[in-house]
Amino acid sequence: MNRVPTLAFGLALATLAAGEPGADAQSISPAPAASNAASTLSAVDYNFVAQANLGAPFQIASGRIAEEKATNANIRDYAHLMVVSHKPVVDALDAILQRERVTAPPNTLLQGAYDAMIASLKADRAATFDHDYVEGQLDYQKGNAALFRYEIQNGIDPDLKEFAQHTLPKIEDHLQRALNLAKSAEIARASSQ
């Protein structure tokens, strides 16, 4: 995967998670379809929902690609975990939004980064794919953990905070698994040289 989309995603996610000025751009002038989200959610909750609403489907889509294209069985197993473990996350977040009668806000910056990463993964082949998928997962899981921690610490909506608290341990597990995949890939590369 081209490191530019991966880094762009990481920076976009980190900026939004940290509540930097760029994060407020989405909540200051929300799209008309998401106006009810902006009027009922705090800026922190609004940004959290915008990112989490796109992140889980991205993990499912990229995981499905990796299930087919990865050359390493451990990476395929990890990708399968991403597919099956993110479906309940999507369902849980959707249930909260429906219960609160909130439409998930769009996040076009993040959607663009995800689209670029998916296109890059589709174009990658063999060992390059394996490397880029694992590196992308490391960046994603680190940023996602920061996003969920930020919601837990600074969010206002109790249901979203509970969702973040419930989901964070899974994200931390996924990050640890991605770190293990990266370490095993480094060992394999070193032993083949």
Characterise this structure.
The protein has eight helices and no strands. The chain is an all-alpha fold and about 190 residues long. It has a single domain (about 5-20, about 35-190), classed as Ferritin. α1 crosses α2 (about 20-30), α1 (about 5-15) runs antiparallel to α6 (about 110-125) and α4 (about 45-70) packs antiparallel against α5. The longest helix has about 35 residues, at about 160-190. The protein is elongated and about 45 Å long. Residues about 1-35 have low confidence and may be disordered.
Note the main attributes of this structure.
mainly alpha, Ferritin, 8 helices, 193 residues, disordered N terminus
Cα gyration radius (Å): 17 Å
CATH architecture: Up-down Bundle
Q: Helices and strands, in N-to-C order?
A: HHHHHHHH
The helix tally amounts to 8
Percent range for β-strand residues: under 5%
* Main β sheet profile: none
Residue windows where pLDDT falls under 50 for at least 5 positions? 1-35
CATH class: Mainly Alpha
Report the end-to-end length measured between terminal Cα atoms.
Answer: 22 Å
User: What overall geometry do the principal axes of the alpha carbons give?
Assistant: elongated
Helical percentage = over 70%
- Quaternary structure of the protein: single chain
CATH topology: Ferritin
Structural class by helix and strand composition: mainly alpha
- Indicate how many domains the architecture comprises: 1
Mean pLDDT: 81
CATH superfamily grouping: Ferritin, core subunit, four-helix bundle
Number of strands: 0
